[in-house]
Amino acid sequence: MKIIVLNCGSSSIKYQLFDLPSKEVLAKGLVDKIGLKGSLIKHSRKDGTEVKLEGEILDHQIGIEYLLGILISEKYGSMKSLDEIQAVGHRVVHAGEKFNGSVYITPEVVAALEECIDLAPLHNPPNLKGIYSITKLLPEIPQVGVFDTAFHQTMPDYVYLYGIPYSLYEKYKIRRYGFHGSSHRYVSQRAAEMFGKKLEELKIITCHLGNGASIAAIKNGKSLDTSMGMTPIEGLMMGTRTGDLDIGAFIQIMNKEEIDIAIANTLVNKHSGMLGVSGVSSDMRDVEHAAAEGNARAKVTLEMYYYRIRKYIGAYAAAMGGVDVIVFTGGVGENDSMTRYLTTKDMEFMGLEFDQAKNEGLRGKEAILTKDDSRIKVMVIPTNEELVIALDTYEIVNSLK
To answer: Pathway involvement (predicted)?
Structure first.
């Protein structure tokens, strides 16, 4: 079964063409700068053939038309006809409390997702544009929605509720939702396989560290807690997001700077985090380089970053009554050996014996980074959110037959 996975952002579309059940990636690419100058498509095929095509791409539907055209083109394609496509899976960021798993997309599901736009105004609209476009271009093809928030719907109420008047939760559904659910789900399942035990028997802390970052406490296969909240701002300090911030301090900033909600939202989402503190970059590599050259603000930025990860690991170990596995994934988690080392060293008191020799220089590969006799295992597992979406789509579409 050939399945297209779409991840639609505000001005981009990431896509992959899978062949299931073999899990083979036939092609993948990026439609970038939609609606902007310099629009282009970067496309690669499983045989290594790559192409970059520039042109005017005014909206998501045009972008999807172009990528479908490339997928069946004689020179760069991986299919002879669009008739070979049997399903489309969409990444959707926010499903609120409406869905606790992936779903077959119907008009009723679309209406429910439209109701969630207020919860994710930056993410859900472009996700929905992908669904609208496929509905128009390939109306007979089944579509499946896979939600970032769904995996965390197992959190108990005492975890997801905030200390605000309960009426505000009832009226506006203001609560912790969590994100990166497909990633946390994938790497926790893979960690159990590498550990040689059932997922339901383990207590796992998964650290998805990229420009956006979150940590999850996964107890017996279910999400107990996660660092991101109602929005992706809460939790760890990230590339450009503040992470945890005293609300009183935020109110003080708005008052002193005389800024409105829109500017304040941009401040905490786009100009804070590693970029805001260091003044150098939102990219870990740039900040590490600046720190190595003696930049004091870059150095304290890294110290803040490492400390918050360590603090969440400790908190989640306490919340679960222990931990068996700590997993690093995401761009930073998979590739930055210094981050892995400095966030897990000196944890022998927990039963964690880190092996720096296994860690040093490791990039983008599965590995166990602890000594053989370490009670707690530390692993690196490259995430594969697209595969999770493809597999869920395959399962749901097959169930419809």
So the answer is: Metabolic intermediate biosynthesis; acetyl-CoA biosynthesis; acetyl-CoA from acetate: step 1/2
| Maximum Cα interatomic distance, the chain, rounded to a whole number of Å | 62
Q: Average of pLDDT values for 60-84?
A: 94
Copy the structure tokens of residue 252.
């003080």
User: Is 180 part of any domain?
Assistant: no
Same domain as 332, residue 244: yes
Q: Nearest CA to 126 among 23, 10, 240, 245?
A: 10
Residues 235 and 95 in one domain: no
DSSP string, 195-219: HTS-GGG-EEEEEEESSSEEEEEEE
In a domain, 101, yes or no: yes
271 is in an annotated binding site: no
pLDDT at 122 over 80: no
**pTM of the model as a whole:** 0.92
Q: For residue 273, say whether it is annotated as part of any ligand binding site.
A: no
Domain that holds residue 104: 2-147
Find the mean pLDDT for residues 272-278: 97
Q: How confident is the model at residue 100 (pLDDT cuts 50, 70, 90)?
A: confident
Answer yes or no: is pLDDT of 341 > 80.
yes
Indicate which CATH number applies to the domain containing 97: 3.30.420.40
Joined together, the tokens standing for residue 373 give 């006799």
Q: Do residues 234 and 344 both lie within one domain? A: yes
Question: Among residues 32, 148, 324, 392, which one is catalytic?
Answer: 148
For the cut 90, the answer to whether the pLDDT of residue 64 exceeds it is: yes
The answer to whether 35 is a known ligand-binding residue is: no
Active site residue 148: yes
Within-domain flag for 203: yes
Number of domains in the chain: 2
